[in-house]
Amino acid sequence: MLNTRFMMGTVAGLALLSGLTSAQAEEITIATVNNGDMIIMQELSSIWEKETGNTINWVVLEENVLRQRVTTDIATGGGQYDVMTIGSYEAPIWGRQDWLSPLNDLPGFDYDDLIPTVAANLSAEDTLYAVPFYAESSFTLYRKDLFKQAGLTMPDQPTWDQIRDFAAKLTDKPNEVYGLCLRGKPGWGENLFVFGTMVNTFGGRWFDENWNTTIDTPEWKAALDYYLDVMTKYGPPGATSNGFNENQTLFQTGKCAMWIDATSAAGRVFDPAQSDVADKVAFTASPVAEVPKGNSAFWAWALAVPASSHKQDVAKEFISWATSADYVALVGKEKGWVAVPPGTRLSTYENPDYIAAAPFAATTLDAIESADPNDATAQPVPYSGIQYVSIPEFQGIGTTVGQNISAALSGSMSAEQALQSSQRSAEREIRRAGYGN
To answer: What is the CATH number of domain 138-297+383-433?
Structure first.
């Protein structure tokens, strides 16, 4: 039977606001990423401002820049932001360091409606430190019309070898159709989002059980050689500048036959108002290689309140509004159900309007719920995480490795040099931090 939660408050999604009006109007500063779901949040927030009398100073940044800015501010206690958009990597680490305010007491908030695996990845010691705005795994999007024309059939569980064969047959560079689009922009949250899963399924890991670095290894070499081969032969030009947003634009305008990336892209790719290929798209699981696990990423973009904020109550009021089931209903009403933030609330996946508009809903939910950060590698490891390692030092390590992978893609560094440089850099950081001692 359908849950009645989301049947309430669907009229403009404002029911939650009735008890949120602050006694004195405040201006809060919110730092967020320039992804499509957050752009919608920024647009619709004028409703919250009107109802509460509060105002918002928005700081909207590209992903790598956002991470740099909020990390600097949170680590120094700068207090520049009242709400930060952070991820499942930062939330538990920063929460344990008392840099974030606990969010277990948001006003009028339905915690039981959160997808348990998502909430768990934003918590530390049973304390929620960031509330999910949307969550994602990874999957394969492809042009079913191009596959049909070429006489190809996409399996339910493709291998990376099959993806390469398909890409070779579907690439049509004179007509600007590229067989495979993958992220090339450097960054642990950019090119490593997919490449990190490739390492897992090719049998690699970042560190062994004793925290010895294992980057310059045959498994990493096999993954990197594959990545460079398909991106050079079948990818778009200038791929080192392409992150999530850039590849989304390429795919939506018909430039990519296949795109392997975040499940959160589906809402825009299937939206005819935003996508030229909305009626030509199909989807399947992320590819596997030697190892049938660790091939699907996990990430959640979430809203958090830094402990340094002097406007805690208003910041929490906004988060409670922007991550509620009522907000989901508001997006569905104003932007269409295909555009609602995915992967956070159980009620979204019980909503017949969303299910009817989003053919990818069940696949997305299954990918998110089955992604296991505690079991993503062929061999044992001392860390959790799928495409990242849940230690504070990984932000620096991952940034360097992402830069080296991008340098290899651009041709300014060989694959061997990229792995050797990454190995040395990671070894220094791990040794300096005292892991394995």
So the answer is: 3.40.190.10
